[in-house]
Amino acid sequence: MAEKMLMKGNEAMAEAAMRAGCKLFFGYPITPQTEVAAYMAKKMPKIGGLFMQAESEVAAINMVYGAAGAGARVMTSSSSPGISLKSEGISYIAGSDLPCVIVNIVRGGPGLGGIQPAQSDYFQATKGGGHGDYHLVVLAPASVQEMVSLTAEAFDIADTYRMPVMIMGDGMLGQMMEPVEFENLPKREVPEKTWATTGTQMKRKKNIVNSLYIEPDALEKMNNERLERYELVKKNEVKVETVNAENADVVIVAYGVMARVAKTVMQMMEEKGIKVGVVRPITLWPFPTEEIAKVAESAKAFLSVEMSQGQMVEDVRLAVNGKKPVYFYGRNGGVVPSPDEICAEIEKIVGGMK
Amino acid sequence: MAKVTFNEQKCKGCGLCVSVCPKKIISFADNLNAKGFKPAQVVNMDECIGCASCAIICPDCVIEVER
Amino acid sequence: MAKVFEKPHALSDVSMHYCPGCTHGIIHRLVAEVIDELGIEGRTIGVAPVGCSVFAYNYFECDMQEAAHGRAPAVATGIKRAVKDSIVFTYQGDGDLAAIGTAETVHAAARGENITIIFVNNAIYGMTGGQMAPTSLVGQVTQTTPYGRDTSTQGYPIRVCEMLSQVEGAAYLERVAVNNIPNIRKAKKAIKKAFQNQIDGKGFSLIEVLSICPTNWGMSPQESMKWLEENMMPVYPLGVYKDKEQGEA
User: Fold this and answer.
1) Cα of A260 to nearest chain C Cα, Å
2) What is the distance of C-alpha B13 from the center of its chain?
3) What is the DSSP string of C117-156?
4) How would you classify the pairing of strands C87-93 and C116-121?
5) Model pLDDT for residues A51-90, shown as the tens digit of each residue
6) Topology at the third CATH level for domain B3-66
7) Residues 6 or more apart from C240 whose CB is under 8 A from it?
8) Chain A contact for C41 (CB, 8 A cutoff)
């Protein structure tokens, strides 16, 4: 039996990154993710790694670009406004096919917004954020233990497909303390980084890390090669948890902490004789479209519950594709939907169906 | 005894070499190179002292110098 | 007869895209000559900017990365920290380094980041067709200052070496020019020292090279050299602005 420790989500994630071989962390303070940086600052020097506080989020992500281009396992973390600043760099990282891990502990927006938990960066994370056709793999843990295992896996996914991976949590998850263990973390064989700029040693032709292709045909070719990798990611990397969804009266689609609330709602509604299922996307990109389409065969209705004005609900609608009604319930700005509010919403839906 | 060799296909005809040659022996050819420039050339190589000024100021590494 | 001058190995054998008479070509060659002479090509990683020298990654034989506009010192920091025995240089123009990338430049200096920055100052944005740069002179006519740089709206040119000389982390700052043969020789000496400093672990070195832009200045290369000397040099005096070894300059 592996030893369990009681840890904060943000700190557990930092520890997992280091255990996954992350040797460089470039950050900039922002609430509510600062514990990641603080933990890294304390621990990195002890393992011969580097914690660096950059002059801005912009600088931090470009340091990540440089280090990733030189083949290192590297990570940065921030929260919503900081991710907006990093988005230029993230686009360059994606365009240069570099692997790295980016954490977004989401807070309410837009603008400076607030510091309470939110899920209003779903569009930014899954539909681009920066400019150009590109994707991140977006992982949405729902527990501290999952923050650990997904962080470890994030580095392997990044290296396998040469693309940035984002771990999207929120202040609640980041601050929450739960027992975790670090044994048996996921580990994959990953390809050697023959493309990295580590110096030619006069033994090979030079490597170039770049996203500039002036000739349209050349740029399209690079983009299409990346698209092929995206298709592979969609085929291989979708993660989703489905509970009690078959023939359900209402299936709640929710991720992160909202999925935990959804499971509470599921139990509460069971007592009232209404069958509620839960689909929890663990990868927000690639989105579990097929799984939701399958659930739509037997479930009667869907309710996307989010800490936003309704973002993921668009992907749920696309997945359900008109087969069943799709409803939305959300609070935003740092307000978390309560189980009672969601129950009332479900009763409304079920009432309307009768 | 010195010799300069101009790789005329790389020359953009900027004339910086012409302006720094202490012997004033560099001029432009009448023909155009593949880039469409009149390349620099030395006509009377006997006067070349191999100072390499032309090569040092050439932005395009057109010139090799032997001495 | 022996060859006394030929293309350095570290400079790629390709035709560069620069306009006729553009001194980027000279500065590229000087950097490559220094890399050759120090025998560091195999462990050197260069960072190209956005601007006229954006394609610099095609012109050096060492490993190269292309950075987002202004971010080269941050990218260089990431590389240097990831590959400890590497020699990392950035090659940046005035818009890249002294406008959009000012923060990255100042903070790389403040950290004493052990990298070498080649800063090419030609007082104009070249790649986009001749707009005002942070280093454009007062009164200088550019596409975006058609009546001359007016200090009431556009302020004053930034003197990068002078500014960074106040930053404790900077080890070596020198301003050179490539307008004539003696100055080109001095420029190479300065660039060599900036790379040697990095090899010796001395920290942040920046060489500002006064350069010309005949196309966007609207002059011949020869006239441009004269314009540089007569107009830029009084505003940007050549010399060593900081050398930690020698004490303050």
Assistant:
1) 38
2) 9
3) EEEEE-SSBTTTTSB--TTPPTT--BTTBTT---HHHH--
4) parallel
5) 999 999 999 999 999 999 999 999 999 999 999 999 999 9
6) Alpha-Beta Plaits (3.30.70)
7) C172, C173, C174, C246, C249
8) yes
CATH fit for domain C24-132+158-248, picks 3.40.50.970, 3.40.50.1820, 3.30.450.20, 2.60.200.20: 3.40.50.970
Mutation site, C81, C91, C97, C127, interface A, largest A CB count within 10 A: C81
ipTM: 0.97
Closest CA to C45 of A166, A217, A196: A196
For chain C, 249 residues long, the average pLDDT of each consecutive 10-residue run is 95 97 98 98 98 98 98 98 97 98 98 98 96 98 97 98 98 98 98 98 98 98 98 98 80
Region A206-211: what's the mean pLDDT? 98
Give this prediction's pTM.
0.97
Tell me whether residues C222 and B19 touch, CB distance under 8 A. Answer: yes
What domains appear along chain A, each with residue ranges and CATH number?
A: 5-236 (3.40.50.970), 241-353 (3.40.50.920)
Higher pLDDT, B31 or A3: B31
Q: Is A27 helix (H, G, I), strand (E, B) or coil?
A: strand
Q: Does the distance separating the beta carbons of C104 and A55 come in below 8 Å? A: yes
Instruction: Search chain C and give the residue with CA nearest B64.
Output: C6
